[in-house]
């Protein structure tokens, strides 16, 4: 905290946390009487019974529901528009996002398009978006079944425009969830590699938010606790997915990292990853971040030395006297989570893709580059990509 | 954090923090067009120009205002009722609480009584109160000029019923301030002894909230940071009131301790103090807490040993291996702030008052005794009072 920090804190989401707390959906005051439940195109929400449970709990709470089940891992504008049309046809008065970040982020975007005319990209204030003002949105209830995005505790929604290959985060005070229920029991069945990808997404929300030049005393508090918890418990959750204590700690860390996104910001690491997964939608967001993280954080090693040492200290619980202690701890954590050897080429990325990704990262999420500890040149950005390539 | 913590987080207050940020009153979206400004009966709000400044900034924001200037250090139900009548007569649509906890707490109670019939005590769910439900309240804007109560970040309002000698805290989600502007520059003129009393009030919000049996992972985070900051900076602010860095750290710690009150709770130390200042309204709340604190925390020394050691560690930044390290650090901090030798008798309190205070504490704020680390007997409560008597 500087001598004269100026900051604000306003997070109007009601966060309910705890194992088994999904049951609260039957008793909490809900923001309407008919919900559009948004889930992914995958099978897990049905297979594990989460969808049926949510429908049933809503019914106990005298709330009808309709399901939209087409959301992709990197969710698209097309599906946002399609679901918003369904929402209007069915006269739903709120949206339930159930699943990973893709479903909850989509729920927020659908909530916007259920109340505003035109195309979703008309409202995006970056890239080829038109930046029209959003004056209202339906309320959203977020029920995460993964621990990573933090979207349950922030206003952001990341949607890909398939036509223009833009993957852009957008949100406003209107898109904070009205209610978020985080029940770690819904996360017990996530396989180890996804647990690691998602957990590192949360880790980078916290670490980027901690080195961002817009960090604040409150975001620092959330960030360091998220970093501490993830370093300690993510390897445990990866090794033993049934360990409910580790799952709960990782889930809480992910929500804390969402609070960081609400009070500080991601930095350009996220812009760089979005560019990769905009071109290669099969690349999981967390995997993309992990792949570039060592080179990314190495770049700023001498720009915020005290903050690197502070992160190292909460991770290792040892006094740190050099910023590279943080990089060492990060690499150690990646090795323990068995994600240190990720190859971008396994997802089809080619060395020659990187120049256009530099441009895409600047064009679509350029604002985050202004929040880095210092401005990066295009050459440095290219370097980070190239050093990360395997 | 236990293996299975269940907790929630919902703080709908927009908190704006920073030196000079009072100016934001001219630009923030306000919850109405005509404000009742509630200030104390003292002279400081006028002497330091804060009242004029607030009236002028509201005017810049196209908002009229009316002033109620009778609030006492231990605010009374009578003034709440009188101000609520003025508010209705003047058709004010929100309340600005400007000053210490007494003015902001009163603003919340006035906000309730401006929208609900009958007497304020009809709504108090403890003591001789009737516990009727409160269904609405006017919005409140909180502008603290002291650092201690945390009322800017919690829903609580402590009002004294002069007739029944009851001093009771009450609030609900309706009484969270809509907007709180915390500007440490407004705190530069607080004299050393009041700086210490108020700062220790914040300290005990955090320390009680940390040992309360309803503490949560989020309240722990806020509490430990408040405790760390106050131990380090309160003695600095007491010694040199013009030190703006120390003032800012203490102000932020006080707001964090308010967040603790919103996510955990005070314990019976507060009930015991309220009983004293209900009978002796000249006793400053913080002074009463300081006077009983050593005996109070000594009583639970072996009941939450790890938590005492954790508090000692964030205070001293040294490894702790015995819970009494916390008591030692607390006493040291009181000595540094020149408040270790407070005499309750200086405010007229007599040894023979204590039995009726035990009863009063149970009758009016009995609920907080259920949140102590373990249940106290009446004999133990009496002992704490008696040991604290000088």
Automatic annotation (TrEMBL), chains A, B:
<dbReference type="Pfam" id="PF25137">
    <property type="entry name" value="ADH_Fe_C"/>
</dbReference>
<feature type="domain" description="Alcohol dehydrogenase iron-type/glycerol dehydrogenase GldA">
    <location>
        <begin position="12"/>
        <end position="184"/>
    </location>
</feature>
<keyword id="KW-0560">Oxidoreductase</keyword>
<protein>
    <submittedName>
        <fullName>Iron-containing alcohol dehydrogenase</fullName>
    </submittedName>
</protein>
<dbReference type="InterPro" id="IPR001670">
    <property type="entry name" value="ADH_Fe/GldA"/>
</dbReference>
<feature type="domain" description="Fe-containing alcohol dehydrogenase-like C-terminal">
    <location>
        <begin position="195"/>
        <end position="388"/>
    </location>
</feature>
<dbReference type="Pfam" id="PF00465">
    <property type="entry name" value="Fe-ADH"/>
</dbReference>
<dbReference type="InterPro" id="IPR056798">
    <property type="entry name" value="ADH_Fe_C"/>
</dbReference>
<dbReference type="InterPro" id="IPR039697">
    <property type="entry name" value="Alcohol_dehydrogenase_Fe"/>
</dbReference>
């Amino acid at each position: 905290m500087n001598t004269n920090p100026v900051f604000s804190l306003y997070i109007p989401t009601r966060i309910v946390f705890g194992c088994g707390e999904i049951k609260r959906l039957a008793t909490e005051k809900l923001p309407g009487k008919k919900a559009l439940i948004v889930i992914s195109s995958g099978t897990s929400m049905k297979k594990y019974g989460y969808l049926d449970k949510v429908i049933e709990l809503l019914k106990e709470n005298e709330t009808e529901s309709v399901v939209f089940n087409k959301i992709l891992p990197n969710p698209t504008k097309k599906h946002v528009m399609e679901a918003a049309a369904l929402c209007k046809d069915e006269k739903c008065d709120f949206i339930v996002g159930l699943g990973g970040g893709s479903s909850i982020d989509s729920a927020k975007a659908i909530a916007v398009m259920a109340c505003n005319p035109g195309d979703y990209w008309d409202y995006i204030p970056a890239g080829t978006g038109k930046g029209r003002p959003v004056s209202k949105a339906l309320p959203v209830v977020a029920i995460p079944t993964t621990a990573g995005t933090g979207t349950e505790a922030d206003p952001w929604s990341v949607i890909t425009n398939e036509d223009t290959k833009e993957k852009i985060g957008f949100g406003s005070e209107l898109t904070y969830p009205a209610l978020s229920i985080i029940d770690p029991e819904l996360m017990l069945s996530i396989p180890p590699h996804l647990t690691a990808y998602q957990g590192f997404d949360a880790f980078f929300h916290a670490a980027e938010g901690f080195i961002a030049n817009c960090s604040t005393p409150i975001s620092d508090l959330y960030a360091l606790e998220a970093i501490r918890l993830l370093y300690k418990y993510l390897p445990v959750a990866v090794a033993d997915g049934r360990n409910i204590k580790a799952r709960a700690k990782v889930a809480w860390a992910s929500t804390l990292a969402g609070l960081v996104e609400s009070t500080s910001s991601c930095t350009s690491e996220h812009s760089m990853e979005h560019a990769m997964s905009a071109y290669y939608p099969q690349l999981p967001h967390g995997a993309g971040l992990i792949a570039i993280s060592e080179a990314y954080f190495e770049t700023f090693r001498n720009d915020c030395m005290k903050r690197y040492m502070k992160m190292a200290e909460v991770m290792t619980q040892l006094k740190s006297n050099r910023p590279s202690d943080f990089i060492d701890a990060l690499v150690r954590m990646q090795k323990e989570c068995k994600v240190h050897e990720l190859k971008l080429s396994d997802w089809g990325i080619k060395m020659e893709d990187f120049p256009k990704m530099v441009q895409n990262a600047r064009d679509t999420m350029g604002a985050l580059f202004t929040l880095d500890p210092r401005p990066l040149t295009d050459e440095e950005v290219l370097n980070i990509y190239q050093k990360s390539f395997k």
